[in-house]
Each structure stands twice: as C-alpha cells, then as structure tokens.
Design a protein that fits this description.
This protein has about 260 residues and is an alpha/beta fold. Helix content is about 45%, strand content about 15%. The chain is globular and about 60 Å long. Bound molecules: D-glutamic acid (DGL). D-glutamic acid (DGL) binds next to α3.
Length: about 260
C-alpha cells in the first residue's frame, strides 16, 4: 500500500485521546485512523516517568507494526514523559504530541487566574514548566493537579454526583476570585466540559485538540503524506483491556 494511504495512529492511556481523534476526523475525514487506548494501564498520570515512557514506546511500536504513517500522542502525560525520546528513536515517522493550551488562554487577555487542570505528572514535568516560564510573567497561572479524575471518566462517569462533587471540591477554592480561563490539560477532560462549566459558569474552557490536529495536518503536508482518497476514511479502535465495554465507551465518546 502506498505510504500516504496508510492509517494515522493515535494513542492515549485510555479513552481520553478520542477527544483529539474526533477533531482529526472533522478536519481530515479522508484519512484512515487506528486508535490505541491503554486502559489496562490507566491512569498514566500517577505513575513514574520511566514507567510511562516504557508504556508509551510499546504502544507506538504496536501502531507502527500496524502500518501507521504518523503517530499522534493524544495524551498530555505521555507527551510530557516520552515525546523527546520518541522523536529521537523514530526519525522517519512524524510524531505529534499535545500540551496544555496555555497560549490561547493567555491571548484571551481576560482578568483573573488561568487554571490548568491536568494530571500530576503533566504539571510536574519540564515541558509544562517551560510553558509556565514562557507565559507565567504575563498571566496568573494556577496549576491544578486532578488525580482520580481520569479513573472516573474511564468508568464512563461523565455526569452525576461523583463527577460534580469531585469538580466542586477542586474548583470551589477559586470561585471567589476572577477566573480568566480554565485549560483542559488532559485529553480525558473535554468529555466533562459541560460539568466543569456548570461550576465555573461563564468561564472560557480551552483545550488543545484542534491545535494538535492542525499541527498533524502541517506535518503530513510537508512529508507528502496526506491521503488523497475522496472516500471517507476508516476508524479502528483497539484497547489493551480487550473488553467490549471499553470499546463501547470509546465509540460513544467518538460520537459526543
Ligand atoms: N489522557 C491523558 C492525558 O492527557 C490521561 C493520563 C492518565 O492516564 O493519567 O494526560
């Protein structure tokens, strides 16, 4: 098969990267996709950097063995832990990562705190610290680690008491001050966006999916790898849990 007709591989620690995949399908509908969710090993964000690096590399190997022409690391945590190493090891494949979308939040120029919700690892790693250095002087940035939230979403809890109590507990401390924006620095969180906006009413909520897919598009263009088919592409969803429930949840999230 000609290289440009091969699929684009997506990976995440679980179902979160589906929020990035759905943007890709909108922008690049003629591409074929393989999505690998590593729900068996989720969450990544509370593991050690070495562990996440190893897990991420083995998932990339699976996607490449399935013929992926490019790989999107649709997980902020895996990007923080492994993107440098991945780019060093796989020099002939475009590898696109995701990071908390601080720039668009700062550029809103709104008064108040910019709250970055993400996993503990994403917020502790140097990639995020570099972003803080870049934008921290211009804005009041508040990193908000959210351990436990990925697990709720992996269980399909997208609304209801558990999610609401979790979010109220995390966010209520900020509600007496002005909030300029909330950045979703984990690809699982866009699925609970409505619940977040119920608590932080009227606050802009920003995610990095579209920026990541625009970057994917640029890289495919410059490598001559855009699929020139006029047919709608295919989507294959794989999960390390090998449980129909997680595949059902993935398909449900893809349609949200
Ligand atoms: N979707 C992953 C991210 O963007 C979640 C990581 C985890 O499993 O903790 O960070």
């Amino acid at each position: 098969m000609e290289k440009k007709h091969r699929p684009i591989g997506f990976l995440d620690s679980g179902v979160g990267g589906i929020s990035v995949l759905r943007e890709a399908i909108k922008l690049l509908p003629n591409e074929n996709y393989i999505y690998y969710g590593d729900s068996k090993n989720a969450p990544y964000g509370t593991k050690s950097v070495e562990e996440v690096k190893k897990l991420t590399i083995s998932v990339v190997d699976i996607l490449l063995a399935k013929g992926a022409k490019a790989v999107v690391v649709a997980c902020n945590t895996a990007t923080s832990a492994a993107i440098t190493e991945l780019r060093k090891s796989y020099t002939d494949v475009p590898i696109i990562g995701i990071e908390p979308a601080l720039k668009p939040a700062v550029e809103l120029n709104r008064e108040g705190n910019i709250i970055i919700m993400a996993t503990p690892m994403t917020l502790a790693e140097s990639k995020f610290n570099n972003l803080m250095k870049k934008y921290g002087a211009r804005s009041q940035i508040v990193p908000l680690p959210c351990p436990g939230l990925v697990e709720l979403i992996e269980n399909g809890e997208l609304e209801g008491d558990e999610i609401n109590n979790y979010l109220a507990d995390k966010l209520s401390q900020f509600l007496s001050d002005k909030i300029a924006a909330i950045v979703l620095g984990c690809t699982h969180y866009p699925f609970i966006r409505t619940e977040i906006s119920k608590i932080a009413d009227g606050v802009p909520i920003i995610e990095g999916s579209l920026g990541t897919i625009k970057q994917l598009n640029r890289q495919l263009l410059s490598a001559g790898l855009i699929n020139d088919s006029t047919e709608k592409g295919t989507i294959e969803i794989i999960n390390s849990l090998e449980d129909y429930k997680i595949i059902d949840l993935s398909n449900k999230l893809l349609r949200l």
